[in-house]
Design goal:
DUF6495, 2 domains, alpha+beta, about 50% helix
């Protein structure tokens, strides 16, 4: 398994897609029920393969990632060949994960306690795995509104 297995809730949301996936494997509902009981390891493999297919599709479409912690905001644009990062560091004790801290940042962007950094980072041989590892570390896929705002602000 390349990524991670989908959660029970995610499988429930993708129920029809999973049925279609099994159909492409020539597995009907009766055969699936039989697999789960008599060959659970094969059923587990099917769940893993489906999970990887879903992740691959999601990661291929992802254009932006964000990872926000108390004093840091990491904003990534996921290009074809490399990712571009905008990093906002706070040098004070404000917590931008709270409404008050975020409001302070919004109102004090040019304060000496706010540091902006930018960098490009090349992908490894597997860019989707690079994206996935960032998600595992707490990044979330976004539409890129914050990235675009700060990119326009500093460039």
């Amino acid at each position: 398994m390349k990524y991670s297995r989908l959660t029970k809730e995610q499988f429930e949301e993708l129920h029809q897609e999973f049925i279609n996936f099994l159909a492409t494997q020539s597995v009907n509902a009766e055969e699936w029920a039989n697999l789960k009981v008599n060959k659970p390891e094969l059923a587990e493999t099917e769940l893993d393969v489906f999970s990887d297919l879903i992740w691959e599709g999601v990661l291929n479409k992802a254009e932006y990632l964000e990872h926000i912690s108390a004093q840091h905001m990491y904003l990534f644009q996921l290009g074809d060949d490399k990712m571009h990062a905008i990093v906002i560091n706070l040098k004070n004790d404000k917590d931008i994960t709270t409404p008050e801290g975020y409001a302070w940042l919004r109102d004090n962007l040019m304060d000496d306690n706010v540091e902006f950094l930018q960098a490009d980072k090349d992908y490894s041989d597997d860019k989707n795995l690079d994206k996935f590892k960032m998600i595992e570390q707490g990044a979330v896929i976004t539409k890129g509104d914050l990235y675009q705002y700060f990119n326009n602000l500093i460039n």
